[in-house]
Write a structure and sequence with these properties.
It contains ten helices and 17 strands. The chain is of the alpha/beta class and about 325 residues long. The protein has two domains: about 170 residues, Medium-chain alcohol dehydrogenases, catalytic domain (Quinone Oxidoreductase, Chain A, domain 1), CATH 3.90.180.10; about 130 residues, Rossmann fold, CATH 3.40.50.720. Strands 3, 5, 6, 7, 8, 15, 16 and 17 form an eight-stranded mixed beta sheet that branches. Helix 3 crosses helix 4 and helix 6 packs parallel to helix 7. The C terminus is likely disordered.
């Protein structure tokens, strides 16, 4: 099978498209023909060596799968060949999704929502699971509460807005001016131009000085330090960004704030919850660009660029078709 392998840590030239042996499912595992995968910040962080102690080389990386079960191992009862499935491979525990085939444990695999294409489904597994764990599992966002989603037009952010609205929250988000219509279309109630406005000032004005109940950090920087200024009493901050620089959290003490740090865990339960939202029309991933398996290095380069013009996710069409066998840019 063809796979995009990582032979050394570094830039996009560290990748090589190679022929590698097709995996064989063991007990409790399924062999999936990968139709699509996608690109996440975690992917380029792995490539450049942020987690090199956990990734022996050469490696097949990638953290999203949408595809079709081709074979099942002994003891598998939930799936049969021909089932359309989606999941996030177990991170740092075996090969990833940048390949034509992937083997996964049955218990992390879910039935793909019928209303999503493979490109859409592959664009939702990791970011959807992350948003669900952050907002539902950790922040325990409730009906009638308010939340600030930093980076609402991004991969995780655009899903978090939709999940928060499905819960029944009032959603604030930060975005560039050219992304305003996009994030409003997702359900954002108040959109803040982070290039021209201070989000703390806007939130305090819009909430009559009360602040929001939850801040969801997808961008890093000084967000952890500044979040208490925008929080209500007993507010919660959830971050998915790994920060090497120490943060001053003294202001959080006065708000009785709690902080949560999320590195998403794989399980079928979260996928089933996301599927329910998809089928009720409350959640849909946005594919902002599509690339081929061979063009994964170009996809990495685009996502890493600060001025990439993206909305939502970059999808990778592993199984080519008439409209996905070449690099495409979409709105």
């Amino acid at each position: 099978m063809k796979a995009m392998t990582l032979n050394t840590f570094g830039g996009i030239d560290a990748f090589e498209l190679r022929e590698v042996p097709k995996p064989v499912p063991g007990a409790g595992q399924v062999l999936v023909r990968v139709h699509a995968t996608s690109i996440n910040p975690l992917d380029y962080q792995v490539r450049r060596g942020d987690y090199q102690d956990y990734v022996p080389l050469p490696a097949i990386t990638g953290h999203d799968v949408s595809g079709v079960v081709e074979e099942v191992g002994p003891g598998v009862t939930a799936f049969v060949p021909g089932d359309e499935v989606w999941y996030t491979p177990q991170i740092f525990d075996g090969p990833g999704s940048y390949a034509e085939y992937h083997v996964a444990a049955e218990n992390i695999v879910g039935k793909k929502p019928a209303s999503l294409s493979h490109l859409e489904a592959a664009s939702l597994t990791l970011v959807g699971g992350t948003a669900w764990e952050a907002l539902v599992g950790r922040a325990q966002l409730r009906v009638g509460e308010s939340i600030l989603v930093h980076g609402g037009a991004g991969g995780v952010g655009h899903v978090a807005i939709q999940v928060a609205k499905a819960i029944g929250a009032r959603v604030f988000t930060t975005a560039r001016a050219e992304q305003f219509d996009f994030v409003r279309g997702l359900g954002a109630d108040v959109v803040i131009d982070y290039q021209k406005e201070d989000y703390v000032d806007v939130i305090m004005r819009e909430t009559a000085g009360q602040g929001v109940n939850v801040v969801f950090d997808t961008i890093g920087g000084d967000t952890l330090t500044r979040s208490p200024d925008a929080l209500a009493q007993l507010g919660r901050v959830v971050s998915i960004v790994d920060l090497a620089k120490p943060q001053n959290l003294i202001q959080a003490w006065g708000k009785n704030a709690s902080y949560h740090f999320v590195f998403t865990r794989q399980n079928r339960g979260k996928l089933d919850e996301l599927s329910a939202l998809v089928e009720r029309g409350q959640l849909r991933p946005h594919v902002g660009a599509t690339y081929s398996l061979a063009d994964i290095p170009l996809a990495h380069a685009r996502l890493e660029s600060r001025d990439n013009g993206l909305r939502g996710k970059i999808a990778i069409a592993v199984v080519p078709s008439a409209n996905t066998n070449a690099t495409q840019a979409q709105s």
